[in-house]
Amino acid sequence: MTKAQRAEIVAAELDKLYPTQEIPLKFRNPFTFLVAVVLSAQCKDSRVNEVSPALFDLADNPKAMSELPVEKIREIIKPCGLSKTKAANISKLSKTILEKFGGEVPKNMKDLESLAGVGHKTASVIMMQAFGVPTFPVDTHIHRLAKRWRLSDGSSVEKTERDLKKIFPKESWNKLHLQIIFYGREYCRAHTCKTPETMCPLCKLLAQIA
Ligand code: SF4
After folding, report:
1. Which one, out of 73, 75, 81, 111, has a CA that is 20 to 30 A from the CA of 53?
2. Are the beta carbons of 64 and 29 closer than 8 angstroms?
């Protein structure tokens, strides 16, 4: 079976399993989405959603956020972990958006990646989910599953992103990003892949018709 055929099977199965894809993080505008994504580093989305409303009630825009003392931000976001770094980054990125980008979250990768605490993956997620621009952010689930489904060789996250973008049509990137994450969260337990009996449905299907 070719890579393209495997990709077709993956897309069809994921469509059956996850016909709709709700964005897991709660937000009010592109700025609050950016903050929520920063908070979600090494923290479950559900935890971020519990914590973020209290912060957004105080500050849902760069000006209000930059006026909040960093310690206050930290106190609110503590349950998300890494609070010292995250609070500092949220305060700093708010000031940068205000001073360099006229108070609007920039709508391009280069400027997004210049913000404190925003790397390539976060910038891609913002472009995709806040602005609807097709990107294919690769997290650990996507990286692992792309290798497992032999859609990429798994040599690096960058390579996985390039391979997935090549093999799937651009209009499906945003949907597939979420579907693969949902699948990974629901099924992927590294220790269960050992035998066909314990494999998850999609890995099993691909293994059977390989
Ligand atoms: S069989 Fe399950 S655990 Fe193994 S790669 Fe597939 S989804 Fe992940």
Report:
1. 111
2. no
Task: For residue 170, give the CATH number of its domain.
Answer: 1.10.1670.10
Which tokens go with 76?
A: 């609110």
89-138 residue pLDDT tens: 999 999 999 999 999 999 999 999 999 999 999 999 999 999 999 999 99
Question: CB–CB of 30/41 below 8 Å?
Answer: no
Domain that includes residue 204, residue range:
3-21+137-208
Specify whether 101 is located in the same domain as 168: no
- Closest ligand 1 atom, residue 144 Cα: 5
- Per residue in 68-84, pLDDT tens? 999 999 999 999 999 99
Residue 198 tokens, joined: 């314990």
From the CB of 188, is ligand 1 less than 6 Å away? yes
State how many domains the chain has: 2
- Ligand 1 centroid vs 102 CA: distance in angstroms? 45
